[in-house]
Amino acid sequence: MLLIPCPWCGPRDETEFRCGGQSHIQRPEPYGAVGDQAWSDYLFTRANPKGAGRERWVHAFGCRQWFNLVRDTRTHEIAAVYPMGAPPAEIAAETGR
Amino acid sequence: MTQYSAGRLFIEGLRGQTGWRPAWRSPEPKKRYDAVIVGGGGHGLATAYYLAKNHGLTEVAVLERGWLGGGNTGRNTTVIRSNYYYPQSARLYDFSLKLYEGLSRELNYNIMFSQRGMITVAHSRHDLEIAERWAGAVRLNGVDAEMISPQEIKRRVPLLDISAGARFPVWGGFVQPRAGTARHDAVAWGYARAASGLGVDIIQNCEVVGFLKNERGRVTGVRTSRGDIAANRVGLAAAGHSTVLADLAGFSLPITSYALQAFVSEPLKPVLDTVMLSLATGVYLSQSNKGGLVVGGPLDPYASYGQRGNLPVWAHTLGAVAEQMPALGRVRLLRQWAGIVDVAPDSSPILGETPTPGVLVNCGWGTGGFKAIPAGGTLFAHHLATGRPHPLAEPFSLERFAAGALIDEAAASGIAH
Amino acid sequence: MSGSRLAEGGSAIDRSRPLRFTFDGRAHTGFAGDTLASALLAAGVSVVGRSFKYHRPRGLLAAGVEEPNALVRLEDGPRTDVNLRATEIELYDGLAAAPVNCWPSARFDVGAINAAISRFIPAGFYYKTFMWPDWRWFEPPIRRAAGLGRISTSPDPDRYDERHAHCDLLVVGGGPAGLAAALAASRRGERVVLAEQDPALGGAALWRAATIDGLEGAAWVARAQAELDAAPETTALVRATAIGCFDHNSVAVLERLVDRRDRDARRPRLRLWRVRARRIVLATGAIERPLVFPGNDRPGVMLASAVQQNLERWAALAGEAAVIFTDNDSAYAAAHALVGAGAQVVALLDRRPAPPKPLVEAAEARGVRVLPGTEVTATHGAPALSAVTARTRDGATFKLQADLLAMSGGWNPAVHLFSQTGGALAWDAAQALFKPSAMVRGYDVVGAADARFDLGGALEQGWRAGGGHGAPPAASGEARPWTFSAIGRVAAPGKAFLDFQNDVTVDDLALARRESFVSVEHLKRYTTLGMAPDQGKTSNVNALALMAELTGRGVAQTGTTRFRPPYTPAAFGAFGGRMRGELFRPRRRLPAHDRHIEAGAVFEEYGGWLRPACYAHAGATPSEAVREEALAVRRGVGLFDASPLGKIEVAGPDAAEFLDRVYANAMSTLKVGRARYGLMLNELGVVIDDGVTARLAEDRFLVGATGAGAARIAAWLEEWLQCEWPHLDVLVAPVTTSLAVLTLSGPKARAVLEAAGVDIPVDAAAFPHMAFRDGRVAGTPARIFRVSFTGEVSYEINVAADRAGELWDRLLAAGRPHGVRPVGIDAWMLLRTEKGYLHVGADTDGGTAPGDVGWGHVLKRTHDFIGRRSLTRPANLREDRLQFVGLEVVGSSAPLTIGGHLKGAGGDEPSDGYVTSSGFSPVLGRGVALGMVRGGRDRLGEELMVASGPERGARVRVTAPGAYDPTGERLNG
Asked: In this prediction, does ipTM exceed 0.85?
């Protein structure tokens, strides 16, 4: 059971949170200039790293605030937590495969 | 290849079971193959088998990072069904179910496909309306399905609480009589033995670490932990790790990997003679031939490559069993495990060409890959051998995402498949 | 074997409290403190069960959780438990147990026929046969024969508890190493939880001769326990098994509370602790390995440590004449214990050609004959042991009369939990065992679990792991540390068992090897080794070593299988814990729930709310009640509780711009005081919700959502604001549950509202359709909306939730002269179906786009909105999409079944659409229905056939949605 460090409330059990998937995805605009493939990439294509990846989570049963975190998908270790809108966190070189 | 039969078993019994041959050969990899399949699970092994059997291609290698069937083939809850809503899905999965019906004899390997039926239980008026629409679609798709009453459900699943006071009262449901379960390991081993018998090389402990490409960017082989292997075409069938391989080959996929947990109880004398799925809790269970109750539930709610699984899903899944079948509250969990499943945005498979020439993909089966093994193998072999998608595979191409032509069973039924 | 109770001794038993019990139909007596196993042993019961496959008679092998043979069914009736290990059952008066896998009894078992044909049913035989004529002929008898215990089919009457604990240190295992760790941390003032699976703390100190800090083992344990109990921040749990290690230092611990037949039924049976610890010390001990030789499963063959434990803790002597068979030092202690108990030790056979001299001398000093380089090649006796055949190194064989064979093949660290954390194991060739290597952060492994078999070393390791300062507890008087060097099997003909529970033999392994199942996972799955209820606790490492020998690969290369939770089996109910019944998934209740009960409501669950489907009364069936309620709205007035409707306040300078982005239609053009219907899409262009949004002020909106969507939509708005458009200055506040909504609907709605007392003008001119006003209704501050889901004049009255009951009473009272009826949701849905109003979630599904429900015009907007780009993808532009239409049954007034499919004359698709909403309209005197039909808007007037469901074959005509009052005149009255 993950222990997620909410930047506002402190560490809480994962059951209070919801994972919103990959973070830092740019919404393409304006809509009239976005091709089908580019739109599809935005909607569907994901990095799905085996190793550290940036995700957005929300403290759904708490402060309801969204934030970013860096989590390793193999070990589930959380390496960094940072606010929405901040630039993507650096990921340590060793991400394995 | 030694033919398996009761007579042969008897003769071997008289001489101490010493005459059996290896189920499959374990050769060293050759320098070149017509086709290389990456992934020695059910889909990869079936693909190799059908390449040899249907298309006469025998210069084929299956490369497996660990041990055969060690991924989701050996980690699922063994349910086989084709009660799908959309015609494209139903055609695909029913084709698979029909192949399963003849598979033990075709492979001369008892996969113990047991068509004990599957009941989908509705717990509210809304569930029942969905079930009616779903079952109707299944029938119109040419697949067996019928609505059944709460009393009939109770007859088939005596332990289910159908009382009005139940937290999840039972309004009805539908059954697919031809659905059932099979012995998952046997499917992998049966295909491996048959493919090996037809000349396919099955190479375990051989991890693909890169792709060989020519100057035009076409893939010409794979780099492995046991050396480079050239291939005219490469097929990826490595559920859970599809995007890892795609990254190596230079393309992206709309896939996220999740842990799917499964649970088995201690062996019990028979208490459940069918497969049951609850629409309210998403929990499903059956009883294996050894007597264990095999239970599945929802995916873990975040991406994972750790074959472990989290405790909240235990609480939901096992708690739901105790809630809906109150006699099972005392039954004890023996073992839990998890597989890493490839989930596409519409939870339907992705079959066929990729942006990298020379590489084809068979992935995205999500939580339902086991039931599709014979079809997945047949279709993938067809595409690898002929260069064209099998008609049943056409709707499942990667292009469907840009076109918006998703095949989302959950969208119609409100439940994950 | 002829076990007996010693006249004195036994640290665990209370001889002043004899207990009666029955096993396999026979009555016995034991003492308080006994386990069922020790009591059976003391009572001289030799056969305690039958094996899974061959139904061989089996006796006790072990004394702990690793026991593979003694699986029993405890009690009858709803509290029946099956597959319990006799070694884990604490004896109580009146206990009734029986072995699980035999009939009629363990002594005489019909299933033993399998043993006679065992040569024809080796590992995996079922893969090779039963294919002709068909598997289904063979499966039913196989299923009946398989399985172990037969459960009760009555509901489990027991309750389960759960608790969360947070601590600095969790210690798993209350043996010397674990106690040392807990003491060290506790003395530093840390918050400590210690979990011991046994009823008593102490572990091996309870039965291995030891002196710690100058005290005898048991005395030291008692002192340690007293200290831990006195420490305010320390919790020492017994009967508490750590069953699984999960992410981020969380461990599931299952505590057995009272498990007695005569207990207080209100107390929970089990408690699941979810422990989150800063650090975790695994002091899980070690499990003794059996030796692998022909006949090693005969009742009377036991692990040496089990023999010793039974003597020391329960004064249960397993046999009168014992042979000891070992390949290591540890079993010598069993010889001493047996001699001390007055038993005859016939011989000690040590496979090693030159056992350590001091050991041999010490044994011989007590009259034990030690035979080095000697091994057991066969056992004799039916059903229990009466003699063994031994073989010396030069091949000479001889027979020894014995009713007990105590064996030891060395010890395996109990690394199960460690392995679950993701920690790596390494093969220690010098000691012939797997032990922890790469450690996972936050975890320490100490004592025998880390292959420290000397007491002093284990204490020190535990002490250090607990953060202890100064000198650790000191051990003295201990024999030299145990060492093991190899795992070997005795090469001799006959069935030598590896997995006692699943009947996997050395020959089965050889067969697996022959057939290429050499990977450990293949080996396990093909032979079923380690897959029985004991999960291979005594068999796995022996089998791995044997497979390594067969393949010539070495044990390290052969590897291990993954250890899976739970460590020991755990009841399903324990995981649900207190979350049962309503707590499993609570149904929300309306603020005026009690009023609905008074009014005779028949409740159903809708979108997570318990809502009145209709109001029953004498003389009407539910469907008649629904018709009466619907007619009341059409002809008079109805009162409907619409409180679940989602209500979300959206405020701020950018509120209008924000709503323009989240709605498919514009909201910025809405005037203050007016309301507008809107559709929300997801980014895939799929309709996800609808509702009426009101503009309260220039910078303030009240967004309406469906009842089922209320929470989801509020979260959705937050997500877009926080993640995508943080620069928009907007606040989102869900207010659904702070308001109750009571709706008056019907031609007499205004009259009732006025009768109830309203302080604002409510006539059509002053208060038109799609407007809202603030005022007081019956003295209560209210916001009233003129919107309608029925097509009749309606007033949606929003008041503070705690005023709902009072307002309900006042409106009913005011409406009584007008014949007001409470209206349930069934009638409400029927009324909107008559009108052809869309119900998101019923008429739409996860694939419905706005164009499909007649909202193609949103593409004319120039403003971007969520999902807009998806609406112009090729699949969205197809003309054969399913479209929202009305349906009229041809030649019948009966309503259609919702979900039934429709099929036109041509076309390749199996289905051309389906019924989404339906009911019998009392005002029209016929069925009305809505549906989704392929290209439906261009098919108005076309007849389709019902293709599935009860009305299969009926014909329906496609119409525009809305069978009643299609021009909507009644709304404006």
From this structure: yes
- Residue owning tokens 């396990």: C524
* A97 pLDDT higher than 60: no
Together in a domain, C377 and C431 = no
Residue C457: inside a domain, yes or no? yes
- Position C556 scores a pLDDT of 87
pLDDT exceeds 50 at position A14: yes
C15 and C107 part of one domain: yes
Q: Hey, is C51 helix, strand or coil?
A: coil
Q: How far apart are the CA of C636 and the nearest CA of chain B, in angstroms?
A: 28
Contact C247 B320 (CB under 8 A): no
pLDDT at residue number B413? 67
DSSP C614-663: EE--TT--HHHHHHHHHHHHHHS-EEEE-TTSEEEEEESTTHHHHHHHHB
Q: Which of C734, C751, C785 represents a domain boundary (last residue)?
A: C734
Length of chain C in terms of residues written: 973
Domain hosting residue C342, numbered range: 289-409
Number of domains in chain C: 5
Residue C676 resides in a domain: yes
Looking at residue A52, its amino acid is: A
- Report in angstroms the alpha-carbon separations of C68 from A54, C297, C495, C497: 47, 11, 17, 12
User: What are the φ/ψ torsions at residue C418 (nearest 5 degrees)?
Assistant: -60, -45
Nearest to B396 by CA among B358, B345, B357, B356: B345
Q: Domains in chain A, start-ordered, CATH in brackets?
A: 3-83 (3.30.2270.10)
Q: C260 and C310 share a domain?
A: no
The pairing of beta strand C425-428 with beta strand C433-436: antiparallel
**Can you list the residues of chain C whose pLDDT is less than 70?**
1, 259-265, 478-481
Question: Residue B415 pLDDT more than 50?
Answer: no
Beta-strand ranges (E) seen in C504-590 are 504-505, 570-571, 588-589
Return the SS3 of A92.
Answer: coil
% of chain B exceeding 90 in pLDDT: 97
For A24, name the nearest residue in chain C, comparing CA atoms only: C723
CATH number (domain holding residue C424): 3.50.50.60
* Residue C378 counted as domain residue: yes
pLDDT tens track for C30-70: 999 999 999 999 999 999 999 999 999 999 999 999 999 99
Q: Is B303 on the interface with A (CB under 8 A)?
A: yes
pLDDT at B55 over 70: yes
Tokens of C780: 């209560």
**Quick one: C162 and C263 in the same domain?**
yes
C476 falls within a domain: yes
What is the Cα–Cα distance from B412 to B358, expressed in whole angstroms? 35
The total number of residues shown for chain A amounts to: 97
For residues C259 and C306, state if they share a domain: no
Helix (H) or strand (E) holding B91: helix B87-101
Question: Which of C713, C734, C755 lies at the terminal end of a domain, its last residue?
Answer: C734
Kindly state the DSSP code that residue C771 receives in the 8-state scheme. B
pLDDT of B109 higher than 90 = yes
DSSP string, C780-800: EEEEEE---SSSS-EEEEEEE
Distance from C-alpha of C443 to C-alpha of C421, rounded to nearest angstrom: 9
How many helical (H) and strand (E) elements, i.e. helices and strands, does chain C have?
22, 54
Residues C446 and C583 in one domain: yes
Query: Both C316 and C280 in a single domain?
Result: no
Query: In the complex, which subunits touch B with 3 or more CB pairs below 8 angstroms?
Result: A, C
Residue ranges of A 21-80 with Cβ closer than 8 A to chain C: 27-31, 34, 36, 39, 43, 56, 58, 60, 64-66, 75-76
Whether C248 sits inside 8 A of A1 (CB atoms) is yes
| C369 & C303 share domain | yes
Contacts of C247 (CB under 8 A, 6+ apart): A1, A2, A3, A76, B308, B310
pTM: 0.97
Give the Cα separation of B58 and B201 in Å (integer): 9
The token pair at C421 is 């954390």
